[in-house]
Backbone:
């Protein structure tokens, strides 16, 4: 396929921060890859470079953040030559690709949800997408519908299910005045706690617990956007430990 114009659109939701959403490459060195990196959306595009190195076509654009929130996000990529409009959740970013070429020359298939192992270092270091996609449209072709009706030839659908399974985790929302109190374990020597959290507030108390027998307490909080752990032990000379990240 050698195209001057491309329109690619889809919706996705995931709780993973890394994963290839779609990928295509050609023998001329052209490629297009859309992926999640650290919960941000990254588009890598190359319409061609030359061996002399005077024309360098690689272009990389990053947009969005916290996209691993298991909510639906919509993407539209509109390309006309070197002019690109990248729209994420109605926020459009316009840019021009590097290099001097206008056509995207893809000799191989396009893959959604991952990239085939090509032996190149870039292919085995990237994770496949884990989550849900819908309304995949590539240059006027409804990929989701064609895949469901098995009208894509050749295709390797793999272990796909045409439904979106909700995660088993149950989130808890705190409104800055609420809290959740759970019973402690007075006979345990080990204190262990783990959780995921997301907030826009730079300050707040995350966890607090007194130790039994007035031996002290542990506190985990956010202070100016940094997570701090404070451990107070009443029986020791150095009775306070502070860890910040």
Residues:
């Amino acid at each position: 396929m050698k195209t001057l114009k491309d329109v690619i659109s889809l919706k996705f939701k995931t709780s993973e921060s890394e994963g290839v959403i779609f990928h295509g490459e050609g023998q001329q060195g052209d490629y297009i890859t859309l992926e999640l990196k650290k919960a941000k959306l990254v588009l890598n595009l190359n319409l061609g470079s030359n061996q002399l190195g005077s024309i360098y076509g690689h272009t990389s654009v990053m947009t969005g953040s916290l996209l691993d929130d298991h909510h639906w996000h919509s993407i539209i990529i509109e390309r006309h030559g070197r002019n690109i409009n990248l729209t994420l959740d109605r926020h459009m970013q316009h840019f021009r690709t590097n290099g001097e070429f206008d056509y995207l020359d893809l000799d191989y298939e396009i893959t959604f949800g991952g990239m085939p192992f090509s032996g190149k270092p870039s292919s085995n270091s990237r994770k496949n997408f884990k989550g849900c996609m819908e309304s995949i449209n590539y240059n006027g072709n409804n990929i989701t519908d064609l895949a469901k009706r098995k009208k894509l030839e050749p295709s390797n659908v793999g272990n796909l299910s045409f439904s979106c399974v909700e995660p088993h985790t149950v989130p808890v929302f705190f409104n800055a005045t609420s809290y959740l109190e759970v019973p402690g374990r007075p006979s345990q020597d080990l204190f262990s706690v783990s959780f995921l959290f997301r907030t826009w507030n730079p300050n707040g108390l995350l966890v607090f617990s007194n130790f039994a027998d007035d031996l002290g307490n542990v506190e985990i909080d956010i202070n100016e956007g940094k997570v701090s752990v404070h451990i107070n032990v009443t029986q020791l000379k150095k009775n306070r430990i502070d860890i910040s990240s």
